[in-house]
What we know:
Layout: E1 4-5, E2 13-15, H1 19-39, H2 45-65, E3 70-72, E4 76-80, E5 86-91, E6 99-102, E7 119-124, E8 131-134, H3 141-152, E9 157-158
Parallel strand pairs: 6-9
Antiparallel strand pairs: 1-2, 2-3, 3-4, 4-5, 6-7, 7-8
Helix pairs in contact: 1-2
Amino acid sequence: MSSFRDQRNPEVVHFPGTLASFATLGLCAIIALALLMAATTSGPLWLRLASGVPTLALLVIIYFVWPRRIVLGERGVWLYSLLGRKRFMIPWNELAEPAESVELAIFSKSPRTGFASNQTVVLASNKLALRIVHTPRHSDRDRFLDLARKRFAKPPVVIQ
């Protein structure tokens, strides 16, 4: 799914996760749950713990990398929680310049020369310790960066 404008309010742009990321992470979660159920139902206790703990750790990792919906609205930038409720908002007047970065620094030293699947856009608050990160698992990185740049009329800062 790509980014889309709200039908009721055309000033609001939604950036959900991509269909490929939902399918991949969803399949991994289903396999991990099946492995967890199989690992914890038979065998000695040490074997159940040895196979259940890494599988549970995989489920926790999937939870944290699952892309949350980002919404650029009239008042600011919203990041929604996994179940769709509003998590937090950074007002436009408190937002720092958008910064391009990389998700995994081991693959690239510069966001401009790195892999496209590793590039992120970071929107951070000046006053609060809040950050909203548009990851490679979100849709329309270029549109997100363009809309964020239009709010500031400056080129983004590159984090190295």
